[in-house]
Specification:
By secondary structure, the protein is an alpha+beta fold. The chain has two domains: about 5-105; about 110-235, 2-Layer Sandwich (Alpha-Beta Plaits), CATH 3.30.70. It is built from seven helices and nine strands; from the N terminus they run βββαββααβαααββαβ. It has helices at about 55-70, 85-95, 95-105, 125-130, 130-140, 150-180, 210-220; strands spanning about 5-15, 30-35, 40-45, 75, 80, 110-120, 185-190, 195-205, 225-235. The strands form two sheets. Strands 1, 2, 3, 4 and 5 form a five-stranded antiparallel sheet that branches. It has a four-stranded antiparallel sheet with strand order 7-8-6-9, with helices on one face. β7 and β8 (about 195-205) form a beta hairpin. The longest helix is centred in the middle third of the chain and has 30 residues, at about 150-180. It is elongated. The two termini are about 25 Å apart.
Amino acid sequence: MSPIGTYIYGFTNADCRPEDGLLGLANAPIRIVAFRDLAAVVSNHPVQRFTPTRNNLEPHHRVVRQICSRHVLIPAAFGHLSETEAQLVDVLCENYTEIRAELDRLSGKVELGLKLRWNVENIFAHFVRTDSQLRELRDRAFRNSQPSFYEKIAIGSLFETRLSSERNRLSDILWSGLDKAIYDKRISPPRDEKTVCNAALLVERKRSIEFAQALEETAGFFDSSFALEYNGPWPPYSFVNLRLHHAAGAPNA
């Protein structure tokens, strides 16, 4: 039988009191392990390797969401487990200053997802309609029914250049309207051609109305050929800067 270890959901303040009946992985009750004014949110779990199955991920994220709805939390990535509670206390002790500073930075803040997309059926056709140089190059290439290999390369290169330039221009418009209402942002590379900008935002809860107003005003800068979407609030996974140092055998969070 595997020994029982301590599964870690994140770090919070020692005055955190998880809701009665809150269960984590393997339906184990959630509790806290405290050191001074810090605490780790944990549950008991056999010491083993974790697989990211739905049965494991769902309780992990559910616990993180519920704790974050009532307390500041530095959420841990899935799968961190300390073999003993004493090792976890050592981590809290050795990283006290860093954890305390990160909790203070994230206090009262939530993460929102934001995406600006071209709301068009064909992004290349959209650019051909709106960019005269690209349209002229396309028309010359297809004048003889089939463009050459080098003509196709030239068209593709100009399209990519225009796409990148337009993304930068539109992103500047987006952030000129939103930066005043957010605390921080993390921008991810676009995953497809229709995406202008994909970002995670760190927003103060007390400024949620201000953010909503800024978002509505910013949306007015874009016509019906764009879609501006946001989701959340979420635990601030994208904004955790904590890198723990630890003794041998302690969890690597």
